[in-house]
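hey can u run this one w/ magnesium ion bound, need the structure tokens asap thx
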Amino acid sequence: MNTRKIKAGNRSQQATEERGVVILLTGNGKGKSSSAFGMAMRCLGYGLKVGIVQFIKGKQLSGEEIFIREKHPEVFFHQMATGFTWESEDREADIAAAEEAWAQAVKLLQDSSYHLVILDELTYMLSYKYLDEETILKALRERPEQQSVVITGRGGGEALREFADTVSEIQDIKHAFRAGVKARKGVDF
Ligand code: ATP
Ligand code: MG
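ok here u go:
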């Protein structure tokens, strides 16, 4: 245990690069979007600029959305307007909505004043082939050097995993929902 701690310490001491990173939070377990919003909170603590694009419009208004819109209007917040929800059946409308949301993301990815860009549930746009993988990777590659990007969602494909600097896969061990517990305000949305 002690040896392990020392080793981890040494590794971080060797880190010398100062640049933004791409973080992919994936897997079937709960905790991807809430972790991304946790990083937004960290940035806000330091007065750093944050931009958020949500690629899926949840059925439920989320606490994060209320908090940002009401308490932090300086945060750029865009939610995919109409179109794709979990039950959508209109592919053309979904693609149009995805492209419109992506256009907002591109603006953030070209603006070096944003310290952190969150692309929440972006992976589904790749799995459903609503957005082009190479276009996304190119925009990430060409972003400002000091900008970090957090991408959340299940799946997303090998190329994105390969490209990201940090990849965490949250495992679904159990979820209260399957034991019949209703989604809770402040916990699930
Ligand atoms: P959170 O926003 O809570 O961090 P997430 O981003 O990891 O969750 P999503 O797939 O985006 O997960 O789903 C969001 C909603 O679905 C949340 O209300 C969450 O509690 C719920 N959820 C996430 N994973 C599971 C699961 N494995 N089983 C049931 N419900 C889940
Ligand atoms: Mg999520």
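Residues 28-34, 152, 172, 175, 177, 183, 188-189 surround adenosine-5'-triphosphate (ligand 1) (CB under 6 Å). anyway lmk if its weird
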